[in-house]
Structures are given as C-alpha cells and as structure tokens.
Amino acid sequence: MKAIWNGEVVAESNETVIIEGNHYFPSSSIKQDYFKDSSTQSKCHWKGMASYYTLEVNGEKNVDAAWYYPETSSMAKSIEGHIAFWKGVEVGK
C-alpha cells in the first residue's frame, strides 16, 4: 500500500493493519522528511489518545493529515505506533 499526497509517496508498506477501514502504516514505512509534529490530540473511546502529524510536501502543508496512537488500549495494540491518513491523502496500491 502507498499513501500519496501532493504528488509524493509519503508512506509505503505491504504490512498495513486495517481497522475501521483505515490502513495503519508501520512507523518505519513513512518518509520522515514529510512529517512534522502537531500539538493536536484526540481521544478514541476504544483505541486511546491519538497524536497527529502535519504533512509538508513540495512547499504545501496538510495540517493534521496523519494520526497515530503512541500508546493504545489493550484492544488496539496491533496499531500502536502505526500511522493512518485522511484529509485528501490517497491510500491504495
């Protein structure tokens, strides 16, 4: 699977984990140069507290376009530290 935004592959892996229709990419599969820390957080009632990244690609920003769970509940351990995308990031083969 690939995650593409603004014409660039920002993550690529054959080992994504799918939960609630979202592909969660292993943290080792992202192109770190495109990811900037965000102070945004949100809480999922069964996965835990999510943190976000802003993507910066070819001079453009996509604020909070990627999220991850640094520590998950026991029910979501398979995605702990994995990254998922939204806000126009295309995920596909």
Write a compact overview of the structure shown:
The protein has 93 residues and is mostly beta strands.
How many angstroms does the end-to-end distance come to? Answer: 5 Å
User: Could you name the ranges where pLDDT drops below 50 across 5 or more consecutive residues?
Assistant: none
The CATH architecture can be given as Beta Complex
CATH topology-level name? Metal Binding Protein, Guanine Nucleotide Exchange Factor, Chain A
Provide the number of structural domains: 1
Helix content: under 10%
Mean pLDDT: 97
Write the H/E string, N to C.
Answer: EEEEEEEEE
> How many DSSP helices?
0
Shape: globular
What structural category do the secondary elements indicate?
mainly beta
How many distinct beta strands? Answer: 9
Fourth-level CATH superfamily: Domain of unknown function (DUF427)
Determine Rg (CA atoms, Å): 12 Å
Beta-strand content: over 45%
Multimeric status of the protein = single chain
The major beta sheet can be summarized as: 4 strands, antiparallel
* Strand arrangement in the largest pleated sheet: 5-6-7-8
CATH secondary-structure class: Mainly Beta
Q: What does this molecule look like?
A:
The protein is mostly beta strands and 93 residues long. The chain has a single domain (2-92), classed as Metal Binding Protein, Guanine Nucleotide Exchange Factor, Chain A, CATH 2.170.150. It is built from no helices and nine strands. It has strands at 2-5, 8-12, 17-19, 22-24, 35-44, 48-57, 60-68, 83-85, 90-92. A four-stranded antiparallel β-sheet has the order 5-6-7-8, with no helix packed on it. It is globular, with a radius of gyration of 12 Å. The mean pLDDT is 97.
